[in-house]
């Protein structure tokens, strides 16, 4: 079995009308899509990890076309959102492609800073190639990595935003986590062209997400 790591970017920046509500909501940030599944009646279920105001999101969804939603596991400003949604695009076509070519969508799926969704898809080389050729025209795709699939393949960085992953990688490469420490926030900020306070914020968020995933 082979895997493709790639980022898909729908024209409107969302994979479903309800996802668009979350993407445009001023009080919430989409951190990850932990599960997604298409049901036999054409509806779908999704489980998000979000950061922000859970009450505001719940109120917004109550006035939407969602079939059901539940707020779960609220810890500070981080919470999970279960959604049962009606058919919507491009999620419907993407799930149909996964079923047509017998592909596995490896979770979690991470949202990028540019409105894309980074995911890993698993299948035979031929089926993966045919599925990519069959993608709708209104979805941009960028293949980042491909190889032999192992269920134990580490994918911790997939839960980070593009910028968080870049800062985290740079910190590791420059020896920020070595003992004794070989670099500083100022050194990293000089290399990446941003303020030391921004580096500190990105590293703290990246560390929190990675460590939280490891201990769950």
TrEMBL record:
Q: Does the keyword Transcription apply?
A: yes
Q: Which domain of life is it from?
A: Archaea
Ranges for the HTH bat-type domain? 160-211
Any one Pfam family here would be HVO_0513_N
Q: Could you tell me the keywords of this UniProt record?
A: Transcription, Transcription regulation
Instruction: Read off the Gene3D superfamilies from this record.
Output: Winged helix-like DNA-binding domain superfamily/Winged helix DNA-binding domain
Annotated HVO-0513-like N-terminal domain ranges read 16-149
This protein's name:
Helix-turn-helix domain-containing protein
Identify the species of origin: Halocatena marina
